[in-house]
Structures are given as C-alpha cells and as structure tokens.
Amino acid sequence: MIEKRDFYIDGKWVAPLEGREHQVINPSTEEPCTVISLGGPKDVDAAVAAAKAALPGWMATAPEERIALMEKLAEVYKSRTEDMAQAISTEMGAPIEMARSSQWGAGYSHLKNFIKAAKDFKFVKPLGDHAPNDRIIHEAVGVVAMITPWNWPMNQVMLKVGAAVAAGCTMVLKPSEESPLSAVIFAEMMDEAGFPAGVFNLVNGDGMTVGTALTGHEDVDMVSFTGSTRAGIAISKNAADTLKKVHLELGGKGANLVFADADDKAVKRGVLHMMNNTGQSCNAPSRMIVEASAYDQAVETAAEVANKVEVGPASEEGRHIGPVVNEAQWGKIQDLIQKGIDEGARLVAGGTGRPEHLNRGFYVKPTVFADVTSDMTIAREEIFGPVLAIMKFEDEDQAVEMANDTVYGLTNYVQSSDGARRNRLAAKLRSGMVEMNGESRGAGAPFGGMKRSGNGREGGVWGIEDFCEVKAVSGWS
Ligand code: NAD
Q: Exposed (0-12), middle (13-18) or buried (19+): which is 359, by Cβ within 10 Å?
C-alpha cells in the first residue's frame, strides 16, 4: 500500500473538510493499492479561495520569474522519474517500462516545450503599422479548474498546468479518482519547485461532487477538461450559468486510411499504435480503413501482429501491454466485443474473456475485427480498449467519407506513398490532427479536436494562448 496523502491547498497538505474514503485498485492484481480521500464542495471552496487570493500576485509576476519556476519544476520532475512511473503503473496499469518512457516522458516533453514557448511568447504585441498606439495584450484568464482523466495522467496534467503557470493563471486540479497517486506526487513536485502558495491546488474527488462543484463555481474563470464526450457535455451545461470559458479535450474514433501504395510496415504500425497503452488513448487509430486491393493482406497481417502482442502485469519489465484501468471498463469492452460478433463483424484475433495465462486482473485479449461496416457499434463507439475494427474502401472519395462519418474529430491517419494524395487528404479530413506515414506531430504542435472531440488546443504556444484573455488597448505609449 502506498502512503495516503490528502489535499494540497494554499501551499499546505490539508485534511478534507468533507467527503469519503476511496480505495484505488491496482488493475494488474485487482488488489487495493492505496486509500485516498474524495472531497466535497467545502474542499472546492477552500481550494478556489486559495487560487483566487494568489491570482493578483501571480499574474503580476514577470514571465521570466514564472519560467524560472517551470525550469525548477523540470529538474524536480526529472529527479522523481521512478516514483512517478511506479505510481502511474500501479494506479492505471501501464507497464513499468512504458510508464518510465512514454507516460513520464510525455509530461516532461510538454513541460520543456512550454518553457521554450513561454520564452518566445509575446504577452504584449503591436496591432500593426496602421495603429501605432494599439497593443494586444495576452493576460491570464484567472482561476482555472482542471479536470483530468487517468489514461495518460502526466501528459494531461502537464498540458494544463505547464501552460497555465506560463500564462499566469492560478489553478485547482481534480484528477481522475482512478489516478490520484501520480497527481499527489505532482503536487509534491510543485511544492518542491517553490511555486507560491495558492498558485497550484489539488483536490481529489469524483466527477459528480468535486467536478460539479468546480465547474459551476462562481469564482472559477475557466474550466480545462480532458475526458469523455459525455462528461464534456455535462460540464458545458453546468458551466453555462456562470458563462466561464470551457476548454474541452474529449473522445475520438480515429480513422487510419491505408492505401494500396502504403509502405509495407503501415499495417503493423497501425495495429501496434492501436494496442499502445492497451488501446486507452483518445487518439487511437481504432478504425483501419483499407483500400480494396490491399484489404485481404492487411487483415491477415493485422491478425498476425495482434496475436503476437503480449499481455501481462504492469509491474513486469518488457514491452507487453498491461490491463485496462478497471472492472467497469473491462466489462464495457467485453460487451462491445460481443456486440461486434453479434452484429456480424468477422473476429480474426482475440475475442471476449481474459488471455489464457491471466485469470486475475483486468486483462483484455488484443482483438481485431474484419469486415466492419460503418453502421456497426464497434465502428461508431469509442471502445477505449485494445480492439481494432478493419473496414474496406473502394476509392479516395469513399475513404474520406468513411473517415469523416463519425461524431468525433480528433486524429486521423493516412498511409500512402503518394504525396499529392496525402496533402489532399490532410485538407479533407475533419479532425484537429492528421498524422501521415507514421510521422508523429513535432514537439509543441497543437493538440485538440473538432466536432464532439472538443474545442481549443493544448501544447506549445497554442496551449499558453488558451489560458489567456486577449485584451485590445489603444493609447499605449
Ligand atoms: P471521464 O469523462 O469519465 O472522466 C474524466 C474526468 O472527468 C475525471 O476526473 C472524472 O472524475 C471527471 N468527471 C466525470 N464526470 C464529470 C462531471 N459531470 N463533471 C465534472 N467532472 C466530471 O473520462 P475517463 O474515463 O477518465 O477518460 C477516458 C475519456 O477521456 C475517453 O473518452 C478519452 O477519449 C478521453 N480523453 C481525451 C483526451 C483528449 O485530449 N482529447 C485525452 C485523454 C482522454
């Protein structure tokens, strides 16, 4: 069991004012790994009051002062790689090697990018030569409520906190009740880095109590939310009465368009990308849509690759995939696999139940369906597990139509050796990101979605802008 910590408010660790205890279950073993406190509205009031009190002083600091603290945070974050990796691995099931590299690493690289972006960021800019006395000022939006999911905990926390501190905002973080351990370690790091009291506050809690209290709070100026589309809609409605700014990073159902002229690693790459983090990524390429002439070979290759993906406990070293996060998610994935079978898709790898060698823990077989059609549930719903749906297209227009036939619009993928085609498709795909031929986005590129995948952008300079109000000033001297 990991030692229990309570909330971090106004620069101190404090006991909850109300709420209840909650056992965090290790998904690899189904055993409790810690007990945390889930707070209530009184804890939210205390944390928001601390953030509000700290705001004027923090907003007035020079950007260089904030950058110096971010640099200190990067040092502290690096010094605690192993603690952080162990916490993430234990609470949400990422295999320890992957927790040390991608899970920990995503947070680190976002922070480094924010430091760079903050150094280049112009908080005061001229409007243009036609209006020499006008300035456009980027100013901190104020007190921000941050609500995060469990699947890439430090990725999401850092995308918000790194940008918000650079912008001069103060904040209250409510992490997922599935991943509180990494958030507690993160709060310890903020403390050690020396951020002034009240700039960063942490309250653990569930969505309906602490989440609702934060998103409807009079003194919260902005909500920055990452999570499901369902919760994003509820949050938008709750925030509407106070007309606060709401930034949403939501679900996805990415299409991976594989043309017959794609390179010979494209299918394998697509399957492994889908299985990464046990399929629990909002930008997972969960629909592989393949050109008819390459379809049979792609199905065969995808099944072979999926059958070789190893599944095992998160505590074991190695490049396997771990369990999914909890029992509810395991059950939901089982139902969706069964639905795929019932609705007539062809199961070519995996299926329902646990892998044979694992009878305890929330493990799912790496699963591939072929002959999936756009009307099937597994082509429409975000499964959030290691389940790939393969579909067929006849020509480029149909490929685009199928890719865009979803309520989501986060990331789409294209595999083709034809550069002109890739550029055409980049314009036609309705998603915030398009990644082609296995090239991932460069450092500091904006991350975010269209349609019901959300609004706004996180990361780099776009991330800092999102935590700013834009003020037009005339008569500047
Ligand atoms: P979730 O929506 O259930 O929970 C996310 C967070 O929201 C948690 O902290 C939860 O306590 C809180 N919450 C839930 N309901 C709330 C409410 N009504 N008011 C306030 N807070 C509430 O999502 P999850 O299961 O933790 O995460 C998986 C989802 O997150 C997937 O849909 C995934 O695609 C999405 N996601 C999106 C991105 C992105 O950047 N677009 C990144 C990662 C995950």
A: exposed
